């Protein structure tokens, strides 16, 4: 499993580069501006107590992949999350943009200013990520939706229906297309979403298979899931239900299509923040640990 530590880890790395001469000042500066994670931790704990985890979520078993009420709540949630998501994404885009091709060729003063700016950028990123997760989880509680259902709808809408591919978007972006590490991060987002969604669909298929007297809709959905989950291909190839949604689901999604398409990530930072929805997030004082499922 891959882990990313945002906040203190950035500060520690930068302090090592700069050296002991500026260590005390930088440490105090970062310490005094680290985000308060208590509210985020409280919301995260309440979600865990009231709703199943992302991989433990079992979608509805009535033969429909989603209904209008679910999609209305989900669309509203994505609209409400756009501002905090953009702030967190902007901080990440700014941070990754600091280390351009001219960094190694620059003067010692140029390097010092760049690294020092990255400390402050790391603090901004940590604070904005905490804000994003706090707002997201508070809205989920308000809408009576757990992280499991939210990740399921995200995967179904973004990847299965809209066929969003962050890796392909990365390849077409001249701003980041030459950076292997950023490309790997984009691939991690896709892989995390695929793993979580596949587990959810496997649980749904198991639940449908246990129904003693299934309806035609339940039988049809079970058959589709079995064909999707038993393709003989490696699990990292393709995305479940992509190009294989029923007509009723497609018609319902299309009614919300304008808003949902508008919410697709456009920058590398937005891709990474979107990916956090498919990952386990742990908080400790002054830092956020993001671990892929």
Describe this structure in words.
The protein is mostly helical. The chain has twelve helices and three strands, in the order E-H-H-H-H-H-H-H-H-H-H-H-H-E-E. Strand 2 (279-284) and strand 3 form a beta hairpin.
Number of domains: 1
Order of strands, main sheet, comes to: 1-3-2
Q: N- to C-terminal separation?
A: 7 Å
Biggest beta-sheet profile: 3 strands, antiparallel
Helical amount: 55-70%
Could you tell me the strand content as a percent range?
5-15%
Radius of gyration: 21 Å
Determine the number of helices (DSSP H or I, runs of at least 4 residues).
12
**Which series of helices and strands comes N to C?**
EHHHHHHHHHHHHEE
Uncertain spans, ≥5 residues at pLDDT below 50? Answer: 1-33, 101-116
Class derived from helix and strand content: mainly alpha
């Amino acid at each position: 499993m891959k882990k990313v530590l945002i906040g203190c880890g950035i500060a520690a790395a930068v302090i090592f580069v700069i050296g002991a001469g500026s260590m005390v000042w930088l440490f105090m500066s970062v310490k005094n501006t680290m985000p308060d994670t208590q509210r985020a931790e409280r919301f995260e704990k309440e979600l865990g107590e009231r709703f199943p985890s992302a991989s433990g979520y079992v979608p509805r078993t009535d033969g429909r992949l989603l209904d209008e009420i679910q999609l209305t709540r989900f669309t509203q949630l994505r609209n409400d999350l756009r501002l905090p998501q953009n702030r967190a994404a902007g901080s990440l885009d700014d941070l990754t943009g600091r280390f351009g091709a001219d960094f190694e060729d620059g003067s010692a003063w140029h390097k010092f200013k760049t690294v020092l700016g990255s400390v402050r950028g790391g603090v901004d990123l940590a604070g904005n990520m905490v804000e994003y997760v706090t707002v997201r989880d508070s809205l989920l509680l308000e809408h009576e939706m757990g992280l499991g259902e939210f990740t399921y709808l995200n995967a179904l809408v973004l990847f299965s229906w809209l066929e969003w591919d962050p890796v392909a978007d990365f390849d077409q972006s001249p701003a980041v297309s030459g950076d292997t590490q950023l490309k790997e991060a984009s691939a991690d987002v896709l892989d995390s979403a695929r793993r979580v969604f596949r587990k959810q669909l496997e649980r749904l298929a198991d639940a449908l298979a246990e129904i003693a007297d299934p309806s035609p809709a339940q039988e049809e959905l079970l058959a589709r899931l079995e064909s999707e989950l038993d393709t003989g291909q490696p699990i990292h190839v393709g995305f479940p239900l992509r190009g294989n949604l029923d007509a009723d689901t497609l018609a319902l999604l299309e009614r919300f299509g304008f808003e949902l398409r508008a919410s697709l990530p456009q920058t590398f930072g937005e891709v990474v923040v979107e990916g956090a929805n498919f990952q386990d997030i742990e908080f400790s004082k002054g830092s956020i640990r993001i671990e892929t499922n």
